[in-house]
Specification:
Layout lengths: L1 H5 L19 E5 H9 L3 H8 L3 H4 L5 E8 L3 E7 L3 H10 L3 E2 L20 E10 L10 E3 L9 H17 L1 H4 L10 E4 L7 E4 L7 E5 L15 H6 L8 H12 L4 E3 L1 H4 L5 H8 L2 H7 L2 E4 L14 H8 L2 E6 L5 E8 L2 E3 L6 E3 L8 H4 L7 H4 L12 H6 L3 E5 L4 E5 L3 E3 L31 H9 L14 H10 L5 E2 L2 E2 L10 E3 L32 E3 L20 E6 L17 E15 L8 E7 L5 E10 L2 H9 L5 E9 L3 E7 L7 E9 L8 H4 E8 L1
Helix pairs in contact: 2-3
InterPro entries: HET (IPR010730)
Protein name: HET-domain-containing protein
């Protein structure tokens, strides 16, 4: 400890060749140079040295190798763990990150002779608002409070709400009727909450978005309706609901809407009615409060170990500037930035890795496996509409609060608004940002993101999307909603595919694709199967769907599709749901020619009127694992089936007869794609006829 303090007793030396005064966009400094610069009185070297945890400097198991100061307040510290075993222990169990030795010999972390990886820590240097740092690379930021209802945190939330209501033009344009939902919970301070029938009364309310995480302890049922109207003891609310009520009261909002209490859970009729109104519930609220940090109803989100840990690991550094003047900065662990779901936030990306013996000890997923970018909500199917439909979202994450509205994305720890925030992670396809005011235009992106989320009950596959379908219908009232597809986008959107993505994480569960039973949608709808849905032929490799502007091979489409209940956007009556069309039906024999778990090249042949065989090939996209396994088991013999061309004599639906084959009634079982050079001569391979899909 004494030697650590002696580094900072030297007089100031502002001309350091090691760190270059932190004036460059990024500075690499070896441990030796950093210590020498600090001893020589360089303020920047002293600052960087202070940013390293004393416990790491004194840990005999590791040795500091280098420090890399970036131009965005972040500092990367690299340590030599001295062995493979120690390296693995530190990055799997003790909070370090796995690093790699620099390939460039000029870098201080270049060590090609060491057969094990280094370990790293990343920290953030920051000053407080109003205290400008002497170094441009150190930005101003905010402290994260140890609890989410700390006075400074609540004041910040009030400022966000006030600024949005008074200053955000694009948010003020969306004038929302101040009508309460059919049922809301009255939560005025000093009294127990009570359920009220609003009867169209005006009022401000907040909606709660939360993860059920199993059975929620407080639910509205038919026999409890009158009791809940008389009053609900506050102590009977699970912790997540109590925290939400506490925040609402702090914001002086008298009503809250919680799905498990405002919808009669044992009434299908009430679910149908209220499910069809989800669009209005989330669109009309003052804001939606998202309990991202709560694993379930009993967990709560105001207090948490991650917040307390971050607050406890935030240290104040006293430094001397280039001219010898004294100042203060702060250092804390650097967290990752995420934007999935359409809002920016910082989160702890590291989590302990399971030990080999623990991997098979339980079939239950770990808490880390349930979390996506710091949120328990982002993997939940119901939550997508709860994220896209509200005008304002207030996210309570494990270690900060985040805000998203039509005008800004903000978080508790940073002063600056976030840049453009996408709903999906950036990939090579550069996905379009979803415009929540025109969900119809972005429906393919909505379905793709939605089907990558989890539903406890697959039968909710249409119901959990009903609010967004209602919003989309409002901008296209003449279009008919057909079990997850829109009538004016047919036949092109019939070419949806089931995606079997490459799993880079060996511990990740591969999504299964099977028919939902009992059926909630006809086979030609993506909602009829589980698994990830992809509108593949609208991606870059397929000319971004420009082919859909050409004349289709499938014409004269007529759809019959009626809902099973009062929710017109929910499950449909499969018994009478059908799609009839005129197209070229081709009887073929098809077999796979190789491939992998996600890639299925095929060859197929069809009989011509002259008796000769025509052959072509391409790629198969099976709807279900059952069909795929049957085809794989058939080997080179292949399977007989019927295909119908949708576009360009090379994009086909794969069909299986239902009942007698001559009735021309089929169910869809997959999609075929052929390259342009392999397009089929439809008049030679098949006949044009009217058929039915069920």
């Amino acid at each position: 400890m004494d030697s650590f303090k002696r580094l900072f007793r030297k007089k100031v030396n502002s001309d350091c060749r090691c760190c270059q005064g932190l004036l460059g966009p990024g500075v690499w400094i070896s441990a030796t140079d950093l210590i020498q610069g600090s001893q020589a009185g360089c303020p920047a070297c002293q600052l960087l040295y202070q940013s390293i945890n004393l416990s790491d400097l004194c840990d005999p198991r590791i040795e500091l190798v280098s420090v890399h100061a970036f131009g965005d307040s972040s500092v990367l510290q690299t340590f030599d763990p001295k062995s493979e075993g120690m390296s693995r222990q530190l990055y799997t169990q003790e909070g370090f990150h796995k690093g790699r030795w620099a390939a460039d010999p000029s870098r201080p972390s270049h060590a090609p002779d060491r057969p094990y990886p280094p370990v790293e820590r990343s920290v953030e240097l920051f000053s407080l608002e109003g205290n400008t740092s002497h170094w441009p690379v150190v930005r101003a930021a905010r402290h994260v409070a140890a609890v989410a209802d700390a006075p400074e945190c609540l004041d910040l939330i009030r400022t966000w709400v006030s600024d949005c209501e008074k200053k955000h033009r694009s948010c003020r344009k969306k004038k929302t009727p101040k009508t309460l939902p059919d049922r809301v919970i009255l939560i005025r301070p000093g009294n127990d909450p009570q359920l009220v029938d609003s009867q169209g009364l005006p009022g401000r309310y907040i909606a709660l978005s939360h993860r059920w995480g199993g059975n929620v302890s407080l639910q509205l049922t038919k026999d409890k309706l009158e009791d809940f109207k008389r009053g609900i003891p506050f102590s009977s609310f699970p912790k997540t609901f109590q925290d939400a009520i506490h925040i609402c009261r702090a914001l002086e909002v008298d009503y809250i809407w919680i799905d498990s209490i405002c919808i009669i859970q044992d009434s299908k009729e009430d679910w149908d009615v209220q499910g069809s109104k989800m669009d209005q519930v989330y669109a009309n609220c003052l804001l939606t409060l998202a309990a991202d940090a709560a694993e379930n109803g009993g967990a709560g989100f105001i207090t948490g170990t991650e917040r307390q840990d971050l607050s406890g690991k935030t240290r104040k550094l006293i430094y001397h500037g280039p001219q010898g003047e004294e100042g203060e900065l702060f250092v804390r662990p650097l967290r990752e930035f995420g934007s999935m779901g359409g809002f920016g936030r910082h989160y702890q990306g590291w989590a302990p890795q399971p030990q080999p013996e623990a991997e098979t000890s339980s079939s239950q997923p770990s808490k880390h496996q349930l979390v996506e970018q710091g949120s328990y909500l982002l993997r939940r199917g119901w939550v997508l509409q709860e994220t896209l439909l509200p005008r304002r979202m207030l996210h309570f994450l494990p270690n900060e609060v985040s805000w998203r509205c039509a005008s800004a994305s903000l978080c508790e720890c940073q002063l600056r608004p976030h840049g453009n925030v996408a709903h999906a992670p950036l990939d090579l396809e550069q996905p379009r940002e979803i415009d929540t005011e025109d969900l119809k235009e972005f429906w393919k992106e909505v379905v793709e993101q939605y089907t990558r989320r989890q539903l406890t009950f697959p039968s909710d596959r249409l119901a959990a999307l009903a609010g967004m379908a209602s919003r989309a219908q409002s901008v296209a009232p003449d279009a008919h909603y057909c079990a997850g597809l829109w009538s004016d986008a047919l036949p092109s959107t019939l070419l949806w595919t089931v995606d079997r993505p490459v799993q880079l994480d060996k511990n990740a569960e591969e999504p299964a694709s099977r028919r939902i039973d009992p059926a909630i949608a006809p086979s030609w709808s993506w909602a009829s199967v589980t698994g990830y849905v992809l509108f593949l032929f609208w991606k870059r490799n397929y000319d971004r769907g420009r082919w859909a502007k050409s004349a289709p091979d499938l014409t004269d489409i007529q759809v019959q599709c009626t809902p099973t209940g009062q929710n017109r956007y929910g499950s449909v009556n499969v018994a009478d749901a059908k799609l009839t069309a005129l197209g070229y039906l081709c009887k073929v024999r098809l077999w796979l020619t190789g491939g992998s778990k996600w890639h299925f090249p095929f060859r197929m042949e069809g009989g011509t009127p002259g008796g000769t065989l025509g052959r072509t090939g391409g790629y198969l996209y099976p709807d279900t694992d059952e069909f795929l396994e049957s085809l794989q088991a058939s080997g080179k013999q292949g399977m007989s089936m019927t295909v119908v061309s949708v576009y360009g004599s090379r994009m086909f639906l794969v069909l299986r007869p239902v009942g007698e084959e001559e009735e021309l009634v089929f169910e869809r079982i997959g999609v075929l794609y052929c390259e342009e050079k392999d397009a089929v001569g439809l008049s030679e391979w098949g006949r044009r006829d009217r058929f039915t899909l069920v």
